[in-house]
Design goal:
47% helix; 7 strands; Glycerol-3-phosphate (1)-acyltransferase; 9 helices; 7-stranded mixed sheet
């Protein structure tokens, strides 16, 4: 039986088998997009109502979780989280995760228990519906090609920490071309952690890239399944901590589960 399974898995990686499965992956991606748009449009009036006023940050947590759960249910994405109790119970923290799938953002909303600001590429402002979280100041767009805009984003991130809001960052800055291989981490998250002595919570998205990778790549992954996520023990940060050491330690911890 083991040999039969091995032969089957080998066949799945043959070019011919990949082409046979391509239409099904493409149809799943179309279905995923339809669920995303339909659920988002239905919830959009609700978003406009709750994402306002001084209490909008607390409400945003519930809104994000609601939308994420709806997408996961209808797209048959189950979530298995190891170490979900490792999130700090008090004070803001900085989540650093690997980025290899469009599921990463959706599941980030699902698993982080408290209020947080997500720092995402400025391209997110062009994405339908989800951009409302960035336009309403719940999340923070980052444009690294524009130094002035990038500086403004950094100031917003600092203000979020001062307001006791946590941050969620993909230190790679973008999805790598060869998942699960990670790109080199940028310094931003660790500079913030040092300035505010804020704990870093490393998260490993183990197999999201196998479930949903590039939405425009017909041959790319697209299927229902179980997303395995590891929430690691927080890394303590003190004024004596070293940026390079923090960056390397976080990288190695995340990589250890890939």
């Amino acid at each position: 039986m083991r040999k039969i399974v091995q032969v089957y898995l080998t066949c799945l990686h043959l070019p011919s088998m990949r082409w046979i499965g391509a239409p099904f992956r493409f149809l799943y991606k179309l279905y995923f997009g339809a669920v995303y748009l339909t659920s988002g449009l239905l919830l959009y009036p609700y978003f406009l109502i709750v994402l306002r006023g001084e209490d909008k940050y607390r409400k945003a947590v519930k809104v994000k979780k609601l939308w994420s759960n709806i997408i996961c249910i209808f797209c048959v994405i189950r979530v298995k989280v190891e170490g979900k109790d490792n999130f700090p119970q008090e004070g803001p923290f900085i989540v650093c995760a690997n980025h290899a799938s469009y599921l990463d953002i959706i599941l980030m909303y699902k698993i982080i228990p408290s209020d947080f600001a997500f720092l995402g590429k400025s391209e997110v402002l062009k994405w339908p519906i989800i951009n409302i979280f960035f336009k309403k100041g719940i999340d923070i767009p980052v444009d690294r090609s524009n130094r002035k805009v990038a500086s403004e984003s950094l100031l917003k991130a600092k203000e979020a920490l001062r307001q006791e809001r946590s941050l969620a960052i993909f230190p790679e800055g973008t999805m790598g071309p060869e998942p699960p291989k990670m790109l080199r981490f940028k310094n931003g998250a660790f500079s913030l952690a040092l300035e505010f002595s804020t704990e870093i919570v490393p998260i490993t998205f183990v197999n999201n890239y196998k479930l949903f990778y590039d939405h425009i790549d017909l041959m790319g992954a697209g299927r229902p399944g179980t997303a395995s996520i590891v929430v690691h023990q927080p890394i303590k940060v003190t004024p004596q901590s070293d940026l390079v050491s923090l960056r390397n330690e976080t990288y190695d911890i995340i990589k250890s589960k890939l």
